[in-house]
Design a protein that fits this description.
With about 400 residues, the protein is α/β, with parallel strands linked by helices. It has helices at about 1-25, 190-200, 210-220, 245-255, 275-290, 315-330, 335-340, 355-365, 380-400; strands spanning about 65, 70, 110-115, 120-125, 155-160, 165, 175, 200-205, 230-235, 260-265, 295-300, 330-335. The strands form 4 sheets. Strands 7-12-11-10-8-9 form a 6-stranded parallel sheet, with helices on both faces. Strands 1-2 form a two-stranded antiparallel sheet.
Length: about 400
């Protein structure tokens, strides 16, 4: 019994010793002059930091440590990027982005003028440098023409505000592929289709829904063989809520294939759950790519129907894209619109991507489209057929056919 009691005592002692040790590890230790991972500093231990190493102008200032183990920079003064104008700074807009006129050393770049803090910099119109929000400078139009802006030929000029003056351009060319252009496929001359095949190098990022365009083009092969096109398909889509994975893939492809002159990405279900901010991130990223690659035609797209009707989030998000494209003269493949209207002009606001009206239409018009062997992803063959025609129409416009 004595040996058993001794053994139990030793086990209890060891257990309690480890338990006490563990408790000591999780106990707050701010103020013990030992810098722990969760602390910026502790007493005299500043983690090797100083006012100078943190980028403050008062390099001889005394960096301190608060009772909460956070660095006390009150004696360090200012630093570039804090939106406070120091005597050594010409500007300070609170960031290190040099593209806005105030560089990462808080100096004003050539061609810009900046106000007092909080600093706002604007490009100087008339200095010969196209910067910031400027489109042009005097006779320098940056290679842009009436045609590249989506107008009929004419004379593009630069206004006194360094923005394009399109008053002498021709009429604006329709740049939106929606249900209204589907019948116009029949009007495209063969030589215009051949021009598409021979001159366009298309990079198309899509998953299953986007494949509807390619399926539809294949259904039109007896009229124009889409397999002869310079078409590169990338697996992926536009994601949702600001996902920019597609942008990186696009840049990589354009870098490796500079001959590419058309880029288009489709949505999967992202527009059904997207946000206003997420949509705008997509629009801004596309617009930025257009500015960086002016010889490439970037085609915007709306998302597929989901049955939520005119007041649903999907249509709200799609309207944001549609309105922005119309206001800015962008190329748009209006995926949703094509699904929403039958050839007789009847609107189906509550439809889904299955294209319920397509089945009814084909029952009444059995010769309306060739068979696709049920290969139209998520939908009806006639839906793909319509989209194939609209895609050929848009590509023909990009290749120079004015309709």
């Amino acid at each position: 019994m004595r040996n058993q009691a001794t053994w139990m005592f030793m086990v209890s002692f060891i257990f309690l010793s480890y338990a006490c040790d563990d408790a000591g590890k999780v106990q707050s230790s701010c103020g013990d002059n030992n810098l722990d991972p969760e602390e910026e500093c502790d007493g005299a231990d500043l983690g090797g930091n100083s006012c100078e190493s943190l980028g403050y102008y008062n390099v001889t200032g005394v960096l301190g440590c608060t009772g909460m183990c956070e660095l006390d920079i009150s004696d360090c003064g200012h630093r570039c990027g804090d939106a406070l104008l120091d005597p050594s700074e010409a500007c300070d807009d609170g960031n290190f982005d040099a593209s806005d006129g105030c560089d990462d050393h808080c100096q004003v770049l050539e061609g810009w003028t900046c106000t007092e803090p909080p600093t706002t910099c604007t490009a100087i119109c008339g200095d010969g440098l196209i910067l910031g929000e400027e489109n042009c400078e005097a006779s320098d139009l940056g290679g842009v023409t009436c045609e590249t802006l989506g107008y009929e030929p004419g004379v593009l000029a630069c206004g006194d505000d360094c923005r394009f003056d399109t008053s002498q351009c021709g009429e604006i060319i329709d740049r939106v592929a929606d249900h209204t252009v589907v019948p116009q496929f029949e009007l495209i001359p063969q030589d215009a289709l051949v021009t598409v095949v021979n001159n366009l190098y298309v990079y198309f990022g899509h998953t299953s829904h986007g494949s509807q365009l390619v399926t539809g083009m294949g259904m039109l092969d007896p009229l124009v063989d889409h397999s002869q096109m310079n078409l590169t398909e990338e697996y992926g889509d536009l994601g949702t809520e600001g996902d920019l994975a597609w942008e990186g893939l696009t840049r990589t492809h354009l870098g490796a294939h500079p001959e590419t002159n058309v880029v288009i990405w489709s949505w999967c279900g992202g527009q059904s759950t997207n946000t206003v901010q997420g949509v705008q991130i997509y629009l801004d990223a596309m617009n930025q790519l257009e500015e960086e690659f002016p010889d490439v035609a970037f085609i915007y797209m709306t998302g597929h129907l989901d049955g939520t009707g005119d007041d649903g989030l999907l249509r709200e998000n799609n309207r944001q894209i549609r309105d922005w494209c119309l206001q800015n003269g962008k190329l748009l493949f209006d995926f949703e619109d094509i699904e929403s209207w039958d050839p007789a002009g009847e609107y189906y606001p509550d439809g889904t991507d299955a294209c319920e009206w397509c089945s009814e239409w084909m029952t009444e018009n059995p010769d309306a489209c060739p068979d696709c062997a049920d290969s139209c992803a998520h939908s009806h063959c006639f839906n793909c057929y319509q989209k194939g025609k609209a895609f050929w129409w848009l590509l023909a416009r990009i290749a120079g056919w004015n309709g």
